[in-house]
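Our preliminary data section would be incomplete without showing what the modeling component actually yields. Below, a chain of 71 amino acids is followed by its predicted structure, encoded as tokens that our downstream tools consume directly.
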Amino acid sequence: MSPASANCAATGFRTGQRVIEPALPSILSGGRFPTFERLATVGYDFDLDELFEFGLQRLLDGISVLLDEKP
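Predicted structure:
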């Protein structure tokens, strides 16, 4: 087991989780990221199928534009 994995197992934190959590209140209180603040405080129901379909559609839209271009 790597030292990072051992540390995560011992503390119960995921890698990087301890770094961002103490800074989160100051990031949210600045008003600079209102959408992130709303998602972090209200929560968001992540429907993975819906997110996958949304991302795939954007990707396919971009590919379609590239294929439609004339050289």
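The chain has a mean pLDDT of 78. The chain has one domain: 3-68. Preliminary results of this kind motivate Aim 1 of the renewal.
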